[in-house]
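Technical annex B. To support the medicinal chemistry partners, we prepared a structural model of the target in complex with thymidine-5'-diphosphate, based solely on the information shown next.
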Amino acid sequence: MDRYLEIHAAESSDASGGAAEPALTPQTKVDPRLLVAGKRRGWFVTFEGIEGSGKTTQITRLFDRLQSAEEPVLLTREPGGSPIGHRLRTLLLGTEGAGLTSLAELLLYVGDRAQHLHEIVDPALAAGTHVLCDRYLDATLAYQGFARGLDLDYIRALHTKPPLDRRPDRTILLDLDPELGLTRARTRNDDLGLARSEGRFEREALAFHRRVRDGYLSLAEADPFRVRIVAAEGHPDEIEARVADLLSDLFPVLDVEDES
Ligand code: TYD
């Protein structure tokens, strides 16, 4: 069952009134750009990385941690964060998607994003809910741009008008050697019986994944304030601590020193 849709279903049954405001403490530094008509919007945080980099584990841990601290937070992903997007995900990642041209593939990812932003992400942010998104625009630049060879400027040009001009406040890039990532991803897919339905990118050659990784690293280099690189080797607890450290300015509840 899809964890992300389960979470959406739980959230939407509770969507009658205005969402709770995030707790504002005296230490909270509010960026004026985040004030929507006097109301603070949520932070938009994305997680990126090659297959098997552990981003889904880490984003879920962060979500659980913020939720237990009673922060208003939504966990979502691309592709597949909206009900229509869920169908696009099956098409994009399943065997049916093998016949897509690179351009058609790109436009379906962008279509998924437009629907996701309109239906899920933007309303949540405007209501003051933080949004954690597993993959976003950097994935399109890394996979369809750097790895498949589509023009980066063209991809960027598709993202210049609302709602597609939304940019993350922070991006965590879980960086890993593609050889290690692919071994992990294949083992996981076999364990979950996902090899056929979700194996499209895992079947690409190692060289493809190297281009994805190098693409991500150059995106991070070009935007070092937004994109923070985390070495994704080591125990998940260690990686979780590194991620928390890189987000504690946005979420003071993650500051370990504040917890005592
Ligand atoms: P994801 O669910 O994160 O897969 P995994 O957990 O196996 O890493 O992402 C699904 C696939 O979609 C992944 O191989 C990357 C690809 N993708 C793109 O190629 N372009 C995009 O714009 C996005 C959002 C994802």
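Notes passed to the chemistry partners:
The chain has a mean pLDDT of 86.
The radius of gyration is 18 Å.
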